[in-house]
Write a structure and sequence with these properties.
Layout: E1 9-11, H1 26-34, E2 39-42, H2 53-58, E3 62-64, H3 67-73, E4 76-78, E5 96-99, H4 107-116, E6 119-122, H5 137-155, E7 176-180, H6 184-195, E8 199-204, H7 207-217, E9 222-225, H8 228-236, E10 240-243, H9 258-262, E11 269-272, E12 293-296, E13 299-302, H10 312-333, H11 335-341, H12 343-346, E14 349-352, E15 355-356, H13 359-365, H14 372-377
Parallel strand pairs: 1-2, 1-4, 2-3, 4-5, 5-6, 7-8, 7-10, 8-9, 10-11, 11-13
Antiparallel strand pairs: 6-14, 12-13, 14-15
Helix pairs in contact: 5-6, 10-11
């Protein structure tokens, strides 16, 4: 194989509102340096996660002043969230962007990547042969666990809720928690809710998945096969509904329509974790950590698109743990070689050379799909 120089990796400060994570830890920088990779980190990028610039310098990163320095000099920009506003103007055709893209929810980002010819590789569509989503899993786990904390908070009366304690009290029924979807998000949400001694119903269409969870939890979580009737009965009686439905690369299906929200108890709470894929609750729209909730039909809705951003220290380390091996492959070998050798990473490529090369993403965006191999040859 012809020797090639590794791509320069750039880590800019996140600019999405209330986003305090950073895409790479100092340990990640040190690992990349070991592969001969130069890493540029924007000054202050790690501050929100409690990581000082000096910690990056000590392990060999070059700390640069501005976002333009990072985007302009790097061949591979590693981020946490999809590019925002002015960042879209920094895209170019010889750039690789590795981040959470969620293009089904943010089609304008997809349009910008296509117009610029940027290679966009999305954490959330990297998928192994067994169907697992390794780069989505840790943030799904964090969001699932957070959703119960959030739900418990907003169920308190002074925060607009019904005034229900998750675990109840001796002689008093605990909160009824309904979790829609038994993937990584839903499983972690149900587990946390059960730990607080709530009554928990976990719904999914995959009975084998429910069987697995039932065996682990030994009856502490009620597993229910998901269908329209079952969803309606569960949601109407719920104090807290957690939407945790995911279609990799695609738009989340709407599981709870507006009529069903209207039928819920006043002061009950919805946490729609699927909002970064469009949401699975018909009445949801994306909110921020600064202004996280709104009310529809007397029901409190929480739909923050970057929930793990509220716990940036934990989230940053959890994210780097899983992204680092793929980032090293891309920086060391280049996109073509890396995706040829790693089929899971190949599924992460959403856009390349002005084409959409992930089939699910193309369908969600209403764009023609170009096979990745064909786009690589172009």
């Amino acid at each position: 194989m012809t020797h090639r120089e590794p791509l320069v990796v750039g880590v800019p400060t996140e600019v999405k509102p209330d986003e305090h994570r950073v895409a790479l830890t100092p340990d990640g920088v040190r690992e990349l340096n070991g592969h001969g990779v130069t890493v540029l980190v924007q000054a202050g990028a790690g501050a929100g996660a409690g990581i000082a610039d000096e910690a990056y310098r000590r392990v060999g990163a070059e700390v640069v002043a501005t976002a333009e320095d990072v985007w302009g000099r790097a061949g591979l920009v590693c981020k946490v969230k999809e590019p925002q506003g002015a960042e879209l103007d920094l895209l170019r055709d010889d750039l690789v962007l590795f981040t959470y893209l969620h293009l089904a929810a943010y089609p304008e980002v997809g349009d910008a990547l296509l117009a610029a010819g940027t290679t966009g590789i999305a954490y959330e569509t990297v998928q192994t042969a067994d169907g697992a989503l390794p780069l989505l899993a840790p943030m799904s786990e964090v969001a699932g666990r957070m959703s119960v904390q959030v739900g418990a908070h907003f169920l308190e009366r002074h925060n607009g809720g019904r005034g229900v304690l998750m675990g109840g009290a001796p002689g008093v029924r605990p909160a009824r928690v309904v979790v829609l979807g038994a993937g990584n998000v839903g499983w972690n949400a149900a587990w946390m809710a059960a730990g607080l001694e709530a009554e928990v119903d976990l719904l999914d269409r995959n009975v084998d998945r429910l069987r697995f969870i039932d065996q682990i939890q030994m009856g502490r979580i009620t597993t229910l096969a998901s269908n329209r009737g079952q969803v309606e009965r569960a949601v109407e009686e719920a104090d807290l509904v957690i939407g945790a439905v995911l279609v990799a690369g695609g738009k989340a299906p709407v599981i709870v329509d507006e009529d069903l929200v209207r039928a819920m108890r006043p002061g009950s709470v919805i946490v729609d974790i699927a909002i970064d894929q469009g949401g699975c609750i018909a009445t949801s729209h994306e909110t921020t950590h600064h202004d996280p909730t709104f009310e529809v039909h007397g029901v409190i809705h929480y739909a923050v698109g970057n929930m793990p951003g509220a716990v940036p220290h934990t989230s940053t380390y959890a994210l780097t743990n899983v992204t680092l091996p793929y980032l090293a492959e891309l920086a060391r070998d280049g996109v073509a070689a890396a995706v040829t050798e790693d089929p899971a990473l190949a599924l992460g490529v959403n856009t390349l050379g002005g084409r959409v090369v992930n089939e699910a993403v193309a369908e969600a965006l209403g764009k023609p799909h170009a096979p990745l191999a064909e786009a690589l040859r172009a």
